[in-house]
From TrEMBL:
InterPro entries: ARTD-AVP, Poly(ADP-ribose)pol_cat_dom. It comes from the Eukaryota. It holds the Pfam family PARP. Residues 1-143 form the PARP catalytic domain. It comes from Dictyostelium purpureum. This is Poly [ADP-ribose] polymerase.
């Protein structure tokens, strides 16, 4: 096991600009361009009051080992989609088979939440609730 049980995981998200295309290497200033904001400041926790998105395991930062799962959260712009490959410190993961939207952190003795496949989930998820446990490493642009 790597130190901190560090894993490489996917995180699909939205973009509102053309970063990485046609020689554009400048992040945009839009506060709602998730890709540029993650590059600028790393991942941030969603507001618990933000009901715009279904948060299966509460207001954490969500990752998966399955790129097609993360693809569901990547919104195309001009036919291109964006996904991060991140380094996530999973530590000791607390396993869940069913949704629990009231989670705000793992229980004592655990460092992350693991959404396991079998009941509610078709693909695995790992959720961290501390921004220091995840760093974006690569940005994948695909169509
Ligand atoms: Zn942008």
């Amino acid at each position: 096991m790597a130190a901190g049980n560090e894993k490489r995981r996917f995180h699909g998200t939205k973009i509102q600009c053309s970063l990485g295309l046609n020689g554009n290497t400048e992040i945009c200033p839009s506060p709602t361009c998730a890709v540029c904001r993650i590059i600028e400041t790393s991942f941030i926790l969603p507001a618990h009051s933000n009901k715009a998105h279904f948060l299966r395991f509460g207001p954490g930062i969500y990752f998966s080992s399955v790129s097609s799962k993360s693809n569901d959260y990547s919104t195309p712009i001009n036919g291109n989609k964006y996904m991060f490959l991140a380094n996530v410190l999973v530590g000791e993961g607390e396993k869940y088979l069913n949704d629990n939207q009231n989670i705000t952190s793992p229980n004592p003795g655990f460092d992350s939440v693991l959404g396991e496949t079998g009941l509610a989930l078709n693909h695995d998820e790992v959720i961290v609730y501390n921004i220091d446990q995840a760093k974006p490493s690569y940005l994948i642009i695909y169509s």
